[in-house]
Specification:
CATH topology: Ubiquitin-like (UB roll)
Shape: globular
Largest sheet: 5 strands, mixed
Order of helices and strands: EHEHHEEE
Radius of gyration: 12 Å
CATH architecture: Roll
CATH class: Alpha Beta
Helix content: 10-25%
Strand content: 15-25%
Strand order of the largest sheet: 2-1-5-3-4
Length: 89
């Protein structure tokens, strides 16, 4: 079962403990996480259920390519990392 990890900078705003979630795609995995944590959903996804611009997701160390549909595959024993993308100068 995939593991989902949210970085500590996200957890300062929304409680998102490490969790195992069923799913074969990033969308399926996150929907299972958000079913019990709707506040995290609104922080990570926008009104169209796409990844917010200031967020980035990695699956087993690789950035996802589908920021809208979240269709990237997640291996059964994979790890999904949810980061807040930081910028500045």
């Amino acid at each position: 079962m995939p593991k989902v990890l949210f970085t500590s900078n996200i957890q300062r705003h929304v409680a998102c403990p490490e969790v195992d979630a069923i799913g074969r795609s990033v969308r399926e995995v996150l929907e299972n996480v958000f079913a019990t944590n709707p506040q995290a959903r609104t922080y990570v996804l926008d009104e169209q259920s796409a990844l917010r611009k200031h967020m980035i997701i990695f699956v087993d160390g690789r950035p996802i390519s589908d920021r809208v549909g979240l269709g990237d595959e997640v291996p059964e024993a994979g790890t999904v990392y949810v980061f807040q993308a930081l910028s500045g100068g």
